[in-house]
Each structure stands twice: as C-alpha cells, then as structure tokens.
Amino acid sequence: METTLTTHESARLKELVREKYSQIAQQDLAVNASSCCGATPSSKEVYNIMMDDYSQLNGYAQEADLGLGCGLPTAFAQIRQGDTVIDLGSGAGNDCFVARHETGAEGKVIGIDFTPAMVAKARENAFKLGYNNVEFIQGDIDEMPLPTAIADVIVSNCVLNLVPNKSAVMTEMFRVLKPGGHFSVSDVVLRGELPEALRNDATMYAGCVAGAMQESEYLAALSAAGFEEVEVQKRKTITIPRDILAKYLDAAGLTAFEAGETGIFSITVFGRKPGATERGVKPRVKLSELQACQPKSGCC
Q: Under the phi-then-psi rule, with left for phi > 0, alpha for psi from -120 to 50, and beta for the rest, what region is 9?
C-alpha cells in the first residue's frame, strides 16, 4: 500500500528531492544514465540503468535530455495536432519538446516542475529553440497551479514515484484533464518488497526506487482516482547493478536480494477520464501496434 506519511515527513521528502534534483540539473547525461535517476553513485558496470533512447523521436532536443526518464511516454501518448499537453515533472524540457512536435503550432505544452533549477534550464532551452507554445511553470504536481479541465493529454516520465502522496497526484491529473482526455505515464514500480536498507535510504528515494509502489497498487490507485481503460502499454525490467547495490547492502544482503523474487520495473501506463472531448472521443491505437512501433520508423 502507499505509505501514509505525516505532513512533516512528506515535506521533508519533498525538500530532499528538490535539493537533489537541483544538483542533478547540472549533471551530465552520462552521469545520470549510469546511476538511478542521477541520485545514486554511478555504476562502472552498466552505462544505462533506466532511461530509454529518445534520439530517434521527432522533436528530440539533446540539450534537454538529462537521462532521468524510465520510458518513452510521449511515444505512446497518442497526441494529436492542436492538443494541450501537460508534462508532470518536466525537468529540462525533453518530453515537452517531443510533445510539441506532435501538437503542432496550434497546440500548447505546459511543463510543471517544483525544482527552480530545472524550470530555469527548461525555459532557457525553449528560448534557444524559439518555441513560443511551450510554457514551464514551477509548482507541485500534487497541487497543480492550473485550471480544471485544461488538458487533452498528460505525460510524465519517472516522476510520480518521487512524490510522497501519489494518490493526490492522480486526483490532480483527473481534475486538470478534460472529459475524454487521457494520460500516458512512465514510472518505476515494484513486485515484492525491497530490502529495508534500500527502502529507507534517502538517496534511493531520490533515485526513483525506494518511493516506488507495488505495480498492482499503482494501477488500482489510478482506477480509484476515476480513470477508465487503465492498462500497461509497455513494461521493462530494471536491474540495479551490483556495484551500486553494494553501497547499501552487505554481502549477505546482496546475495539474498539477487536470489529473491523482488522485481523492479518501468511501466508505461495509459488511462482515460470518462466523457467525450469537444472534438469527439479520440481513436484508440491498439497496444500491440504501439509496442511493435519503433521510433525510427516514424509511426511513434
């Protein structure tokens, strides 16, 4: 179940993540890719732990790619020309710029991030690229500074697991989506329990692991927030390298963890708010078609 925290504990975790991601905003892509979301020590065994390759997606801007994602939600989000898209935890703007390519000049993309350094970096990137229909605002995604029913699509990449009150984020997602609007969100989830040393470590929390929910509970929470058609669009296994695990677990703990059945996964999840959009219900793309689609082919 989602852990219930006191107001003080929740505020402390938020500040921890804010401070860490202020540092991460200045780190190189390679450093972030070879660690857990840029927060843990880098691995010398594995170059890329969580992130997927964005470079073949239309709209990709290398300077906005900090290597902090765990999926490609914009490739699965079924964004149409003219849509208003919100990116939760927008970082340096990478997913926003990919989404902008799909919305076209008549659409709008809004990125929300609660780290001032990330918002500043994203605005600088948008200015350099000359984009005037991409906006970055500072704010909490569990209490968005946005009107109700403003968005056609919500995307997010490895962010909800960093928020102490995930149910509040899901409720806010439901609020800001238009009737018939939908989301595509990539996140880290668990099957089984993490060892206590990982579960209680602040760095592992900022590293998108310790704050992850059980997959079944994550999907159930989205349905409880009011979403329909909740389903996993893509799932991949995340393996934390031994040289990182050894920073937190002793030899016996490391052996037990590797021999156990705990699984860490990145999932990309779809869900829809009930109702019809002003332009009618959007046509669904079959998940089999999405999963077979390769970005370089142009179909994503």
A: alpha
Side-chain half-sphere CA neighbours of 30 within 13 A: 1
Distance from C-alpha of 102 to C-alpha of 104, rounded to nearest angstrom = 6
Residue 16's CB is within 10 A of a number of other CB atoms, namely 16
pLDDT band at 292, cuts 50/70/90? very low
Domains identified in the chain and CATH numbers: 7-275 (3.40.50.150)
Global pTM value:
0.90
Q: How far apart are CA 5 and CA 9, in angstroms?
A: 6
What are the tens digits of pLDDT across the range 66-104?
Answer: 999 999 999 999 999 999 999 999 999 999 999 999 999
- Residue 81 CB neighbour total at 10 angstroms: 10
- H helix runs in 25-115, sequence order: 29-33, 73-76, 94-103
Query: Average pLDDT of the chain?
Result: 90
